[in-house]
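Re: [help] complex structure
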Amino acid sequence: MVRVHIGLGSNLDSPQRQLRDALQAMAGLPNTRLVETSSFYTSDSLLPGQPRYTNAVVALDTELVPLTLLDALQAIESEQGRERGERWGPRTLDLDIITYADRVIDEPRLKVPHYHLHARAFVLYPLAELVDEGFMLADGRSLRALLAACPFVGLEKL
Ligand code: ROI
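Output below.
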């Protein structure tokens, strides 16, 4: 079993319900246990003209290897009506692998730690609820330093 963190986001079709349904689906994945879920947060979209997002992070323990986990998460996105249209478009559900044990993964389909993590308060603050004070990302960056550089601005904790 390895500990992984998954970022959840939704800005269409009852975002809070989308997140709750996704958490239930992840809890039901094979060889996987849901450990803990962060609070839910809302924030404006990074792109103008989209509805506000609801975001959270969940800790899972899993035996699924990274690309199998990615396939499983994309299947959940599809089941919940995600249509892969424009790259940064509004979506019913976005599931991102934020961390995978202490591994750095650099493959065409999957980059871990997640690429935009450092700039995204809506990932960093929920992640901070689930890990120890001194948590280090696999690429050597400390969560504390990332939080210090990314103010809690525009986030609303539900
Ligand atoms: N903005 C917020 N607040 N939350 C997201 O999950 C999110 N996801 C995106 C873009 C469009 C970049 N903006 C976002 O993909």
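The chain is about 25% helix and 25% strand.
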